[in-house]
């Protein structure tokens, strides 16, 4: 039979209870499908190629699946009270690790809100209403774009923070709308790929030689003297041509179709990677003559805005598979949490992983390689590639992705303050005591204010590609500790470790932990060290100030097992003279208050053994 509930846990309250589908599966699906799916996945596939793109997605999905298996074992170990993922980790690993991981999870959730907000602003400014740009034409200078994201992101954060402060009921109702938008958008993309099996003429690109051009109307894609292209690449004085760009002189222009369709065989053009450095041209070849600017003006040629590699892309993509703990966070509202959390979470991961992995194959087989690598759709007039694949209209994806991204941001801004309040109420981190207070309406107002401030710091980075790897670190640390908790409890065979979920093994948990650490250091070794350093500082602080809780956790069991193992290894015979240490037995008399009567006896004993030997005290 399962172990009893944790004595520190609050009892479950009555009320409506949710099943597996509504309570776990749908929230997980909604949280996993994020902004990266709509605005970065095509770029990741085009840049990494089919082979590395599939490997990136598969690796990230493996991390979440192995973590979900470990989490299912922890969640089904006894009755699951309200408290969610933080409760599970802290009660399995102890107050020090629990507090450290809780703060990492909180920081990750808060930065996720920042990423969703910047993503929503990017969708509006880049693809829906470019005329709203405050600082001029952002297609000419990428820094203008990021400044727009910062200003509009800050405004949107204030609005969303106010909504969360005023009405959490609205956030919960909007979650259903956001989920409907996500499902509708994904269905529209699949239908669009099928409808465009033979390609279409909707998206045309102007190509000079092998280089992709931007902001050029298809009607103007010609080298006719006096035309827009000629005026761009050639200098003239009083009607006389002074000179044209050498690359322009040597190459012809051509018009390329963006959406080729599955029947075109474009899949084979997308198999190999196209990793480039910042400032290089997007071209059909990796020949230095094609991709290097060579100290000449860029004109209207599309350039790479950030350096790319396998490790950088895995860090950018990873946040799109997070959100697997959305179901466990609702553990207090589930009718049967022990049944619902494992089934709902694992089915949600299988569903989303299937969509992501199939998207790699389908996008690579449908879209031209140059267009896949054009991150902001500059070659097609600032249009979103995924939206133009979808059926019946691009606005289905634009509006759907915007609303779903807003919904995910609101969910993060709602969940993060409650997580911080739960950590503060545990009392393991004395510094957080002020955030344990609720408002008169029972809302964690102070925690919300801190969350908005941290979120604002993330928005000031101004770029999804800079935020995503940082956000990945915090979630990877959290998932790593979930796997560690499951492995430790299994190997130590603690008496209360009897999960009802039987499909776990300590080796799977260690594999999950190893993958988490590997992805962290692959993505960014300095971000990984920063996250580990932050966890270490919190751990030592809790150990020093607040670790007075006894939750029957695995770390206490680990210490006991280590002590037992060491004692059993001691030799039975007399020790060698080099290893001799005084071992003293003290027979102490106690007072009526059970306090040693002769305390100086302990001081004398300490001096005798000089702190080196073993002292056993009995009364």
Automatic annotation (TrEMBL):
<dbReference type="GO" id="GO:0015379">
    <property type="term" value="F:potassium:chloride symporter activity"/>
</dbReference>
<keyword id="KW-0630">Potassium</keyword>
<dbReference type="InterPro" id="IPR004841">
    <property type="entry name" value="AA-permease/SLC12A_dom"/>
</dbReference>
<dbReference type="GO" id="GO:0055064">
    <property type="term" value="P:chloride ion homeostasis"/>
</dbReference>
<feature type="transmembrane region" description="Helical">
    <location>
        <begin position="100"/>
        <end position="128"/>
    </location>
</feature>
<dbReference type="InterPro" id="IPR004842">
    <property type="entry name" value="SLC12A_fam"/>
</dbReference>
<comment type="similarity">
    <text>Belongs to the SLC12A transporter family. K/Cl co-transporter subfamily.</text>
</comment>
<keyword id="KW-0406">Ion transport</keyword>
<feature type="transmembrane region" description="Helical">
    <location>
        <begin position="51"/>
        <end position="80"/>
    </location>
</feature>
<keyword id="KW-0325">Glycoprotein</keyword>
<dbReference type="GO" id="GO:0007268">
    <property type="term" value="P:chemical synaptic transmission"/>
</dbReference>
<feature type="transmembrane region" description="Helical">
    <location>
        <begin position="20"/>
        <end position="39"/>
    </location>
</feature>
<feature type="domain" description="Amino acid permease/ SLC12A">
    <location>
        <begin position="24"/>
        <end position="200"/>
    </location>
</feature>
<dbReference type="GO" id="GO:0055075">
    <property type="term" value="P:potassium ion homeostasis"/>
</dbReference>
<keyword id="KW-0472">Membrane</keyword>
<keyword id="KW-0597">Phosphoprotein</keyword>
<keyword id="KW-0769">Symport</keyword>
<feature type="transmembrane region" description="Helical">
    <location>
        <begin position="503"/>
        <end position="520"/>
    </location>
</feature>
<dbReference type="GO" id="GO:0005886">
    <property type="term" value="C:plasma membrane"/>
</dbReference>
<keyword id="KW-0868">Chloride</keyword>
<keyword id="KW-0633">Potassium transport</keyword>
<protein>
    <recommendedName>
        <fullName>Amino acid permease/ SLC12A domain-containing protein</fullName>
    </recommendedName>
</protein>
<keyword id="KW-1003">Cell membrane</keyword>
<feature type="transmembrane region" description="Helical">
    <location>
        <begin position="174"/>
        <end position="195"/>
    </location>
</feature>
<feature type="transmembrane region" description="Helical">
    <location>
        <begin position="470"/>
        <end position="491"/>
    </location>
</feature>
<dbReference type="GO" id="GO:0006884">
    <property type="term" value="P:cell volume homeostasis"/>
</dbReference>
<dbReference type="GO" id="GO:0045202">
    <property type="term" value="C:synapse"/>
</dbReference>
<feature type="transmembrane region" description="Helical">
    <location>
        <begin position="149"/>
        <end position="168"/>
    </location>
</feature>
<feature type="transmembrane region" description="Helical">
    <location>
        <begin position="302"/>
        <end position="321"/>
    </location>
</feature>
<feature type="transmembrane region" description="Helical">
    <location>
        <begin position="341"/>
        <end position="365"/>
    </location>
</feature>
<dbReference type="Pfam" id="PF00324">
    <property type="entry name" value="AA_permease"/>
</dbReference>
<keyword id="KW-1133">Transmembrane helix</keyword>
<feature type="domain" description="Amino acid permease/ SLC12A">
    <location>
        <begin position="307"/>
        <end position="585"/>
    </location>
</feature>
<keyword id="KW-0812">Transmembrane</keyword>
<dbReference type="InterPro" id="IPR000076">
    <property type="entry name" value="KCL_cotranspt"/>
</dbReference>
<dbReference type="GO" id="GO:1990573">
    <property type="term" value="P:potassium ion import across plasma membrane"/>
</dbReference>
<keyword id="KW-0813">Transport</keyword>
